[in-house]
Amino acid sequence: MLSRIGLSIRRWRRRFSRSEWITHLLGLSTSQQSSHAPGLVLIQIDGLAYPELLKALARGRMPFLKRLIRKEHYRLEHMYPGVPSTTPAVQAELFYGVRQAVPAFGFLVHETQKLGRMYDPEVAALVEKRINTQQRDPLLRGGSCYLSLFKAGTKTGEAHFCPADQGWGPALRKASPMTIAVLIITNIWSLFRTAGLIIIELILSVIDCIRGIIAGQNLLKELMFIPTRVAITILTRELCTMGVKVDITRGLPIIYINLLGYDEQSHRRGPKSAFAHWVLKGIDSAIARIWYAAHSSERRHYDVWIFSDHGQEQTLAYEEVNGRSLGDALSEALSSLPSAPQIQPTTIPKKIRFERSRLFGSEWMDKNSVEQETAEGEDTAPTAVAALGPIAMLYNIDLEGSSRADAAKMMVEQAKVPLVLYLEDPNSPASSPVRGWWKDGPIALPADGRKIMGDEHPYPDQAAEDMASLCRHPDSGDFMMYGWCAGMRQPMTFAMENGSHGGSGPNETHAFALMPEDIQPPDSKLGYWRPQDLRSTARAYLRGARPMKVETHKAPQKILRIMTYNVHSCRGLDGKLSPQRIARVIARYRPDVVALQELDVMRKRTGGLDQAERLARLLAMDLHFQPTVSLKEEHYGDAILTHLPAHLIKKGILPGPPAGKGGLFNPAADESRGAVWVEIEANGKTIQVINTHLGLSRAERLRQVDALLGPEWLSNPRCTGERVLLGDFNALPNSAECKRLGGYLRDAQEQAPRHTPKGTFLKVRIDHIFLSAGLNVNKVRVPRTSLTRQASDHLPLIVDIELSTRGKPS
What is the mean pLDDT of the chain? Predict the structure, then answer.
């Protein structure tokens, strides 16, 4: 009944869904798979470092993310993005599994010998073409992406605000005026909301502009930053959020969105600035809207994973620190070489940050800079420096007999570059060390990695190995210059910005992943994620493989966690049949013993699946199943799952109702009720666990309670030691059945310290855990999360029991 009511409400909501209207009016394709098929939404917060996220959570900037951690059982994890710590490098590793696809965001393309940036469509397409020759299994196949540099397997029209695609542009241009009018009317509130946010952001941008001018910033740059800031922080965020919600409604298998606002503000004002952290409130709101849309989807069972691609360092511009451009400094430092190179002051324009406006077709914002490059022939200079962020690369330099070590030393001592790396022989094997120079003299990587990374770096060895391998990238320069190394008070950037990333600094290489607790990386021993781990875990999830990598179970030392859960044949209130979702509920709480009721085994109504075996396999637990209804090969009943040493003592059918007292139900048609009894060993203690599901009539339940208390079950001579009776009793705490049980056992919810008993079905208590006197309750939970509310018509009841160190009873 409850499921039917919920499904009716969902159908009516779907008829009035704006996303459904957009899908229909634009003729967008929808998923043809079953509604319980797995789906995944990947939300990337561009540029937000793990430490800055902690600050934002503490200051209340991201209340929804805090709610996910506290209420929805998400776990905040560390993530190492690799070096270079740039969006294209992380996206290539995430989408294709290819590390270090690019040496930096801007570099000299070896095929053309021209400087390119990853916002240039032809450069992005060239890099993706290279990647496709190494890996032909893109993560986003059949899905969509928003603000991605790569299409990553999406079909034409499904990559939005991407250098290589037009998104829904063709569909909108083909739409009739009537269709456009209906789209506007049905989304009028969203349009008003976006317009209001743009106005507010415009006011804040003007205030910020005035403050920047007073602080001595360039007037023209401050004025140009206003439209870019509004476009990136508000317009792209709101448009992409609406687009993701539409794609969720369509049931696309995987959806990726990159939220750029924080990264944009951090480059301009610094990652610790109040304006950068203010933007996080809007990002948090966008994530909340996406999350709720995903968990209300009718076409798929979506999971939402949130992560950042890198962090940012609070930096000082090289030009401001040294009073000259890097090109000028290198030309002067290397002037004593036999053939002194003439290096252009800037070969990557300082206005690179405004190029994000090209996502909206506003090439005019960087037109002068681009034209100047072409006119001066900088892109084809024989000796060139690509200087963007904390990494700079020097190309095509002819030392004419001078050693690379001497050149690197000059760059450090005279040009004041903090760290320079190079290959003594470009044809040397990959195992040979990479040489370099810094303030304390020559170094070799990866051996000296910890020396130049420092003790406070979160990933010193990994960063050093990546820096060494980056020198061998075909697009890397002859010399790799870094704006940070250990011992510096503040990192430097080779661009005109206050926040920077791309190098090996401790913050820029310290990203995060916010994941549901049952989702673990392939190698959890590392203690952090890499983008490639995110990719392989996402692929396993989408294949319907085990969604969790259950760690090796350990025998409980002090606390034994038990759970009882009526799983409603694994069919949720949304009508979706999903044993995998039930397994995820259980896995999030990591019980030692699980008592399940209402399991289907090989029944046609639930697809012929052995739900008991499936759950046991997903959770890596042993199974003891008791069928209460058997029709040929179809079964229905209860089970106990555990990872502890256990053996089955008894399973059987309990008495039915007295003749002629079937209550509201015909006794002949009513299902049988049973129990399953398992003896477990925990911390040297023997515990008897009996799982049951009692009948629907009071008279029947009283007979079943008497049987359970009798010589066949709890009063059986073999039922020694501590005892646990649990399950769905279909009886309230003050009922005669529960009072009768209370004379022999204790109700765990009433024994728990500082706990108010909570309902498990329609807010009433009909699922119970009864304990013998020797078992003390440490904690009780009845988790009411989005997942538990959808997965079944009951909520799980979880009890932590204190285990003493006493030996096994005789």
Answer: 84
Q: Is 147 helix (H, G, I), strand (E, B) or coil?
A: coil
CA-based nearest residue to 513, from 305, 313, 311? 305
Q: What is the DSSP letter of 526?
A: G
Calculate the dihedral angle through the C-alpha atoms of 654, 677, 760, 552, rounding to the nearest 10 degrees: -160
Tokens 């009996």 belong to residue? 690
Of 280, 302, 306, the closest CA to residue 292 belongs to 302
Could you give the 3-state DSSP secondary structure of residue 111? Answer: coil
Q: How far apart are CA 628 and CA 693, in angstroms?
A: 10
- For the record, the structure tokens of 336 come out as 């004593």
In three-state form (DSSP H/G/I as H, E/B as E, the rest C), the secondary structure along 423-465 is CCCCCCCCCCCEEEEECCEEEEECCCHHHHHCCCCCCHHHHHH
Distance, in Å, from the CA atom of 725 to the CA atom of 714, rounded to the nearest integer, reads 9
Taking a C-beta distance cutoff of 8 angstroms, is the pair 535, 421 a contact?
Answer: no
Cα–Cα distances in angstroms (integers) from residue 543 to residues 154, 155, 305, 571, 620, in the given order: 17, 20, 16, 20, 19
If one compares 141 and 380, the residue with the highest pLDDT of the two is 141
Q: What SS3 state is found at 732? A: coil
The encoded tokens of residue 84 equal 């270079």
Strands 797-802 and 559-566: antiparallel
* Burial of 550: CB neighbours in 10 Å, binned 0-12, 13-18, 19+: middle
> In angstroms, what CA-CA distances link 326 with 24, 331, 416, 542, 629?
55, 8, 9, 47, 79
**Contact indicator for 105, 502 with CB cutoff of 8 Å:** yes
SS3 assignment, position 107: strand
Q: What is the pTM of this model?
A: 0.85
CA distances (Å), origin 593, targets 382, 691, 782 = 70, 11, 16
By residue count, the chain amounts to 810
The label of the residue with tokens 């990853």 reads: 118
Beta pairing class for 593-601 and 634-642: antiparallel
Distance between CA atoms of residues 638 and 675, nearest Å: 7
Q: CATH code for 2-176+243-313+509-542?
A: 3.40.720.10
Q: Which of 516-530, 572-586, 621-635, 703-717 comes out lowest in average pLDDT?
A: 516-530
- Find out whether 547 and 520 touch, Cβ atoms under 8 Å: no
Residue partners of 594: CB distance under 8 A and separation at least 6: 562, 563, 564, 565, 586, 619, 621, 640, 641, 642
Confidence of residue 400 (pLDDT cuts 50, 70, 90): confident
Q: Residue 409 CA to chain centroid, in angstroms?
A: 43
Burial per residue of 93-111, b for 16 or more beta-carbon CB atoms within 10 angstroms, e otherwise: bbbbbbbbbbbbbbbbbee
User: What is the residue type of 107?
Assistant: F
> What number does CATH give the domain 559-802?
3.60.10.10
- Joined together, the tokens standing for residue 2 give 């409850």
Which helix or strand (DSSP H or E) is residue 589 part of?
helix 579-589
For residue 585, what are its two tokens? 């509920």
The pair phi, psi for residue 798, each rounded to 5°, is -125, 130
Nearest to 82 by CA among 531, 528, 453, 387: 531
Lowest mean per-residue pLDDT among 47-61, 315-329, 543-557:
543-557
Location of structure tokens 């394709």: 29
Joined together, the tokens standing for residue 191 give 């349009």
Alpha helices, DSSP H only, in 357-443?
367-376, 404-413
The pLDDT tens digits for 446-466 are: 999 999 999 999 999 999 999
Q: How far is Cα 242 from Cα 731, in angstroms, rounded to an integer?
A: 46
Domain residue ranges of the chain, discontinuous segments joined by +: 2-176+243-313+509-542, 316-344+381-496, 559-802
Contact between 257 and 43 under an 8 Å Cβ cutoff? The reply is yes
Give me the sign of the Cα torsion angle 137, 140, 141, 146: negative
H or E element at residue 693:
strand 685-693
